Amino acid sequence: MKTRILPLFALLLAAPAYSQSVESDLPPEEEAAAKEADHYALPDLADKTLAEAKVVDAKDRFAVKLGFAFLPADYTVFDQDADSITQVGEQEDKYEVRSLRFMARGFFELGRKWNYMVSYEYKGFDKTSDAKWTTTDVLLSTEIDGVGKLSVGKIKEYHSYEMVGDAANLPHSERLLSPFFISRNNGIALSNTMRDQRATWTVGGYWGTGTDATARVTALPMISESGNEYLHVAASVRYYAGDGDKLRFRGKPASNVAKNYVDTGMLDADHAWNTGLEVLWAKGGYSLLGEYITSSVRSESLGSPRFDGWYLTAGWVLSGEHRPYDRKAGYARRVQPKGRWGALEAVARVGRVDLADGRVDGGEMDGWWLGMNWWATRRWKASIGYGNIDLDKGGITGNTDTWLGRIQWIY
């Protein structure tokens, strides 16, 4: 087992990963306070160099900013007992280039100001098909006075904190509640802030994969003047109707290279209603993030089963830096280290996904995870984590241990 873990540390020393995303941009006040690249011991690109990777019309009628993303590089090690191998087969220890993305974003004037983003990637956090190369985003948005921001194209479905937030900003490495949301879909969404940016709302309709609709509302009951202490609460709903009255729920044990551990298969069902609750509390370097999602499936032949999932993630940045909260987006950004040697963040998580009810046995998956993130600069992060997962399915209980090593660079 020990010799199989050695590639993790080789990865943490040698395998770079790159990313550029609107979702990874910092809030303006945090951008102004961020440290320059030469402040850190680990070499990084200067802001001035990165800012030059764009084209802006002299009359400010359009702008193009190009991006290249290699996000991120992973190595995963599995250790399964005999029952786990019987349930899901033997999982292969694997190195993976997590994503390769090409992106263009900016704005243009055509009657009004339109913002756009187009990205094309290999694999990635937010792929929407089994194809290796997919179009991730094809987005147009514009501000409508007195209403909010209108977005149309291939966009995110705004449901669940794990999905709305940029995956690379999360304290844990992989999403757990993926059976209950889809990353991208063709659709249209409207969003805005309210109560002096102490709350946000988003509604959307989608038609690329079946017919879906989402709504999400967030609130900040408490936030300190410095922004390093806050409480975020949110609720969301998703109407999920698959193609041809067929629905499917499936998910992995917080590992992209693992097979689906919980899987209902194709269900004869008209639609499902997903309801989600979110809580994020932060005080200095301490944070606590929790979500709960329940799904009510409309299917008389299957007894209208109910599925659910939840997780609780605790984080502690040992040097005291906090995750800046973005009031316009309704979630927290990544840690911005202040010290020359960056910031270490300890992470612990526990969670469960239950896809077994009525006449459906998609499995019940419980797990706990421990990890450490090293935010070496404002863009570089290295992490290593351990997971212990139990799967109840087919009348037996299997156990899997995982180790995941990762490096990423975000711009």
Structure description:
There is one protein chain. By secondary structure, the chain is mainly beta. The chain is 9% helix and 54% strand. The strands form four sheets. It has a 19-stranded antiparallel beta sheet. The chain has a two-stranded antiparallel ribbon with strand order 13-16. The radius of gyration is 21 Å and the shape is globular.
Q: Which key phrases capture this entry?
A:
single chain; mainly beta; two-stranded antiparallel sheet; Porin; globular
CATH top level assignment: Mainly Beta
Share of helical residues: under 10%
CA-based gyration radius: 21 Å
What is the number of beta strands? 25
Just name the CATH architecture: Beta Barrel
Q: What best-fitting shape do the alpha-carbon axes yield?
A: globular
Outline the fold blueprint.
Elements: H1 2-14, H2 28-33, H3 47-51, E1 54-56, E2 62-70, E3 73-80, H4 82-88, E4 94-97, E5 99-110, E6 112-123, E7 133-144, E8 148-156, H5 161-164, E9 184-194, E10 199-206, E11 211-223, E12 229-241, E13 246-247, E14 250-251, E15 262-263, E16 267-268, E17 271-283, E18 286-298, E19 306-317, E20 325-326, E21 331-332, E22 343-357, E23 360-375, E24 380-393, E25 396-409
Antiparallel strand pairs: 1-2, 2-5, 3-4, 3-25, 5-6, 6-7, 7-8, 8-9, 9-10, 10-11, 11-12, 12-17, 13-16, 14-15, 17-18, 18-19, 19-22, 20-21, 22-23, 23-24, 24-25
